[in-house]
Amino acid sequence: MTLLWDSMALVEATGGRPIGNLPDGVTGISIDTRTMKPGEAFFAVKGERFDGHNFTTAAMAAGAGLVVVSEAKLPALGRLAIPKVVVPDVRQALEGLATAARNRTRARVIAVTGSAGKTTTKDMLRHMLASVGSVHAADRSFNNHWGVPLTLARMPADCDYAVFEIGMNHAGEIEPLSKLVRPHVAMITMIAAAHLGAFKSLDDIAHAKAEIFAGVVRDGNVLLNRDDQRWKLLSKIAADAGIENVWSFGENARSQFRLVKWEPQETGSTVTFKIAGQELVGRIGAPGRHMVQNALAAVGAGYLAGADPARLLLALGEFSAGAGRGLRHVLRHGDATFTLIDESYNANPASMRAAMQLLAATPVSGEGRRIAVLGDMLELGQHSAKLHAALADLVAASSIDILLLGGSEMKVLADNPPAGPQVEYREDAEGLKPLLLRMVGPGDAVMIKSSKGIGFSTLVEALLERFPAAATEHN
């Protein structure tokens, strides 16, 4: 049994006091009893909806090695027969353990933020770096005030690389997380109208994303998108922060990591990258122009972390998109098949454009049609109606045959539909479900795209339940 943390080291890092006979150590860190494994430490974090202290009995039943609980809750938990580490504040204790994890590692640390592409770029880095060493990264989008410390606390002492995704909804959220992570390489994928409801302008979003510079280590690197309109602003903020090593990626001829050429294929792309002067040819195992951009950024970040870019690009041939982020399913429909593209995890104007381009490039067969199922883009504030209405031009340019719309924000697009496709609107995912199941046919290409909060993943589940799988495209 490999221990992640010695119990005494955990006590010291969290500033806690032990009660009971602590084990020699713990095999992992958990904040969720539904997924915890025997021998792990359970941190009873209090969230917006749940208080972990209410699940300490479940943690004991699941085989927790010890529980980390708050002093204020101890009277109610005193009879619980499990070793405890008692702390003033459980979330602060988790951050203390995160700090200790960062202090003990020799890994090259990469942090990723941006308005779109964060999780996919993080997943690409995890996939690529695993081909050249041991890598630690969250398997999900753990990018907030508890997800980042949790990912740090779970970091093995002996990994070669560590990759962290850092997100935000408001200004001031990224800086403390970046200071916890202390990256050797900090990357901003792009600036776009995401979470615009909390900001006055895209410049304000850029300043909030630039908070990632605050934690960059001495002589560290910043990687920026040179094709982005706010590249100059971001590079100036980086320089003002005292960061000397500012690199760029993109098609721009002055980028140190440059996209020279790309050719789309049904299940991926062939690419030519120029990485710090070296021209590399390879394949990306997930289709779409946005995937190429993410891959270029990921290879550049890997290079800055000391990895061989040729080996990184080679590994990307086996990369496939994740669930809700472009994962493709080929489903049977009678004697034929149709393609389902699952983009149900997130949506903003930039990622919506990328997804529509992906659908437009997806082949159909026979009498097949391209069907776009679009749900609300959330957190756009006063700009929401304008940005949803603007999707009409995007749809009109994307060879869409059928447009299914759902959600209150999409009503503005339904009331002023684009010329060309057949358009149907329902109030929500449940309203769309019978319509979608009835309309999909052999040879179709169907893409489902929305913000996670409106539940369009249930439409993906309904199609997967109704139609048997012919293949899931992992290339």
TrEMBL record:
- Which leading EC class covers this enzyme? ligase
Q: Where is the Mur ligase central domain?
A: 112-301
* Pathways involved: Cell wall biogenesis; peptidoglycan biosynthesis
Gene3D superfamilies in UniProt: Mur ligase, C-terminal domain, Mur-like, catalytic domain, MurE/MurF, N-terminal domain
Catalysis performed (reactions): D-alanyl-D-alanine + UDP-N-acetyl-alpha-D-muramoyl-L-alanyl-gamma-D-glutamyl-meso-2,6-diaminopimelate + ATP = UDP-N-acetyl-alpha-D-muramoyl-L-alanyl-gamma-D-glutamyl-meso-2,6-diaminopimeloyl-D-alanyl-D-alanine + ADP + phosphate + H(+)
Q: What is this protein called?
A: UDP-N-acetylmuramoyl-tripeptide--D-alanyl-D-alanine ligase
Main subcellular localization, coarse class? cytoplasm
Identify the EC number(s).
Answer: 6.3.2.10
Q: Where is the Mur ligase C-terminal domain?
A: 336-451
